[in-house]
Write a structure and sequence with these properties.
Elements lengths: L1 E6 L4 E7 L6 E8 L3 H14 L2 E8 L9 H16 L4 E5 L3 H10 L5 H28 L3
Parallel strand pairs: 1-4, 4-5
Antiparallel strand pairs: 1-2, 2-3
Helix pairs in contact: 3-4
């Protein structure tokens, strides 16, 4: 089964997908937010293209583990995904994923305008890869 990873933001939505063996995540796209209907249609395109069986959405807990204001926005987005697609949608701790993506790109020669899109796609990839890694660890008693 393929799993879609999402890094939700008001302006951009990073999208990643894993391979069929659920081992590796790769960035797929950065959706420029153009309103709920268009955003869901674009995400739906990836759900169909990759025959997605689950969606994992980065959930922005604070560093102390509490829920921040942004969590309410992600909760509303998750509810829309759950209504729009017949697959399970799971929230996943995304703490510092965008910072980690920015750090990875810091040494790369990426133009500033393009960097925003790459950061969101890479953050989605990091969220999904963390989900896959931890799920695999739990399978093996870790």
């Amino acid at each position: 089964m393929r799993i879609l990873g999402i890094d939700y933001g008001a302006k951009r939505i990073g999208v990643a997908v894993c391979d069929e063996l659920e081992i590796l995540a790769r960035g797929v796209a950065t959706v420029q937010s153009r309103g709920e209907e268009r955003d869901l249609a674009e995400i739906g395109r990836y759900v169909r293209e990759f025959t997605v069986g689950r969606i994992v959405v980065g959930y922005p807990y604070r560093l102390d583990g509490s829920r921040g204001i942004q969590c309410e926005k992600v909760d509303a987005f998750v509810e829309k995904l759950e209504s729009a697609f017949p697959v399970p949608v799971e929230r996943w701790d995304e703490t510092l994923s965008t910072r980690e993506a920015e750090d990875i790109l810091a040494g790369r020669k990426v133009r500033a305008g393009k960097k925003r899109n790459v950061v969101d796609r890479l953050a989605a990839c990091l969220i999904l890869q963390d989900y896959l890694n931890r799920r695999e660890t739990r399978k093996h008693g870790g």
